[in-house]
Design brief:
Layout: H1 6-10, H2 13-21, E1 40-44, E2 47-50, E3 55-58, H3 61-64, H4 73-83, H5 94-107, E4 111-115, H6 118-133, E5 137-141, H7 162-165, E6 168-171, H8 176-186, E7 190-195, H9 209-222, E8 225-229, E9 251-254, E10 265-269, H10 271-274, H11 295-306, H12 310-329, E11 334-337, E12 340-343, H13 349-358, E13 361-362, E14 368-370, H14 377-400
Parallel strand pairs: 3-13, 5-6, 5-7, 7-8, 8-9
Antiparallel strand pairs: 1-2, 2-3, 4-10, 9-10, 11-12, 12-14
Helix pairs in contact: 4-11, 5-11, 8-9, 12-14, 13-14
């Protein structure tokens, strides 16, 4: 079944209402596709229905956050029970203790702090690293996405002060010579190196193992903290992707799947580093957040993680490998690892997004395909067929223009 033309979504009353109160009728830049994105009405399992009644299989999953798809029965039941007792308090609750205990057991990282998003988790980690080391600079890798805070976005982006841009050193990921030169020049002023081992914005290409080992060795030798951003990649293993690289980060940032579909972020790390957040310590970093560690997110996250054990991770990662195999066999260039894939064709992704949507697949606006546990082998084949068709149609349109 084909979806209506994008113009029908643009002219829909809901889209008109949205444009009257929000720039382009949109709050999240990452979701915008011209002329306007469809609006979700409901979701169940791996499927989403929009305001025109079009059904799509969800390979966006709120940019990888919905590991169990939509309306997971266990999460729904647990959240309802929590809502009956209160959604947030000006006191800590046992729910944050339980989730921290689970993460500690799962990862072997024994100190945690919670926030409301991956962006905030990264901000917290950077503040903590600067406080611990007494240094100012952060080294990050070009093309990686670490949220929307000023210090980790492209320094050329509108609205970024020169002073903020000067607090970061940016090098190419995988370029050992450039990394070494930056460490030699700035090492005594660098508080932390932050790395995503498979950055979504840089094409979901797994980092080179030798390069990562070199980064870990150099940071350790120079007293620089290593922050591994696992906001997206935590779904790839019980302890995230860094365990597969056999490295021990000083700090790790999480988000997405650990909230069970609700807002969440987390920072975990070495006990001595995390001590900077201790409110009775001499060198303490004050960091609050009205809804940080709220019992709804904590409870939903614990249920979601408990239902995503080693067997579940292996099964979903296997389906991701099957999807990449099917796409490669059909002539579609794709990258990724585990349950995360990205279409790497030289096409206009705005056109491809709509062709995928017409074909019944909701993807990320950059070609991201994130699988969820409700998906079956049949769903994977359906996705592969739809992607191959959409890529073919998009290429044909480009050739004709």
């Amino acid at each position: 079944m084909s979806s209506p033309d994008p113009k029908a979504y643009y002219e829909h009353p809901l889209a008109r209402r949205a444009r009257a109160v929000m720039p382009a009728g949109n709050t999240r830049t990452t979701l915008f596709v011209p002329p306007t994105p469809p609006y979700a009405v409901s979701g169940s399992g791996s499927w989403v229905v929009d305001q025109l009644g079009h059904h799509v299989i969800d390979c966006n999953n709120n940019y990888t956050a919905l590991i169990h798809g939509h309306a997971h029965s266990g999460v729904r039941a647990a959240v309802q029970d929590i809502l009956d007792t209160g959604s947030a308090f000006g006191l800590p609750t046992s729910s944050e203790v339980a989730l921290a205990e689970h993460l500690a057991d799962r990862t072997g990282i024994y100190r945690w702090r919670f926030s409301n998003s991956g962006t905030e988790a990264v901000m917290t980690a950077i503040r903590g690293a600067r406080a611990y080391t007494g240094r100012d600079l952060i080294l990050r890798f070009d093309g990686s996405y670490h949220g929307t805070s000023d210090g980790v976005v492209d320094p050329r982006a509108p609205g970024i002060p020169v002073s903020v841009a000067a607090a970061s050193v940016v090098v190419a990921q995988g370029d050992e010579a450039e990394f070494d030169a930056a460490m030699t020049r700035h090492g005594e002023r660098i508080a932390a190196v932050i790395i995503d081992l498979m950055p979504n914005r840089a094409g979901l290409a797994p980092a080179d193992h030798e390069f990562v080992e070199h980064v870990r060795a150099e940071t350790r030798a120079r007293g620089v903290l290593l922050i591994v951003d696992e906001v997206i990649t935590f779904r790839l293993g019980l302890a995230g992707l860094h365990r597969q690289y056999a490295i021990d980060p000083d700090l790790v940032t999480l988000g997405k799947i650990i909230g069970g579909g609700f807002p969440v972020g987390a920072v975990g790390g070495r006990e001595d580093v995390m001590r900077v957040f201790d409110p009775v310590a001499d060198c303490r970093v004050g960091w609050g957040g009205t809804f940080s560690a709220n019992p709804v997110s904590m409870t939903a996250g614990l249920v979601a993680l408990e239902d995503f054990d080693g067997d579940g991770i292996e099964r979903l990662n296997g389906r991701g490998a099957d999807l990449r195999g099917l796409l490669t066999d059909s002539g579609v260039t794709v990258s990724g690892h585990g349950s995360l894939s990205q279409i790497r064709e030289a096409v206009d992704f705005k056109v491809l997004w709509w062709e995928l949507y017409r074909a019944g697949v909701l993807a990320g606006t950059n070609g991201l395909l994130a699988l969820s546990t409700p998906m079956s082998d049949k769903d994977v084949r359906t996705i592969a067929d739809a992607v191959a068709y959409a890529v073919s149609v998009t290429k044909s349109k480009q050739s004709a223009s």
